[in-house]
Amino acid sequence: MSTPAAREQDSKSRRKRVRQALQSLALELLDLSPEQLQALVGDGVLLEALEHLRGLRARAARRRQIRRVAGLLSRAKTEPWRQALAGRAAARDAETGCLHAAERWRDRLMRQEEALAQWLQLYPAADTPEFRALLVQARKEYPRPLSGRAPRAGVPHGRGFRALFRELRRHLQGAQKC
Asked: What digits encode the pLDDT tens for the residues 14-27?
């Protein structure tokens, strides 16, 4: 009679989880550019299979090819690839966080007069006449609803509004706060 640990090691559920994880890895690898993919995977059957998968549009054929790539991945050491993909995801998340921080600062600067003093206290290099001119221009373009809430999505903003965002993002990245 087998032990519970041995049954879990050979269970159908475990094999299915492993297969699904490999298929997910195949799809993550597919999201990379051809140059990134070649640098990560190298030449070989796996690269050819991924390139073939990239060209498939038929759903059934694509599903079969994903299973084939997952089978190839099961024979390879996937941990370095997973780490590389996790590093790329972390960098992407950091960039997204930086963009969100710039959006939050821009919205605060648009709505609150005291936000400018807080911004300049944190980023004294931003205290330039150009920055203040951008802020004045962006405030002129900013649609102010009667209720005092933020404008609804889809309301167009002017050039100064976007330029202020770029300047905020530049200062945040320069200070490496994001």
From this structure: 999 999 999 999 99
